[in-house]
Amino acid sequence: MDVDVFVAAHRHEWDRLAQLLRRSRRLSGAETDELVLLYQRTATHLSQLQSWAPDPAVVNRLTTLVARARSVVVGTRRATWRDALHYFTAGFPAACYRTRHWWLPTALVFILATAGIGAWIAGSPEVQATIGAPEELREMTRPGGGYETYYSSSPAAAFSFQVWTNNVVVAGISLTLGVFLGIPVLWVLLQNAVNVGTGVGLMAAADRLDVFLGLILPHGLLELTAVFIAAGVGLRLGWTVIDPGRLTRTAALAREGRAALGMVIGLTLVLLVSGLIEGLVTPSPLPTWARIGIGVAVETAFLCYVLIVGRRAVRAGETGDVATADREDELPVAA
Question: Which residue has the higher pLDDT, 277 or 145?
Answer without folding.
Answer: 277
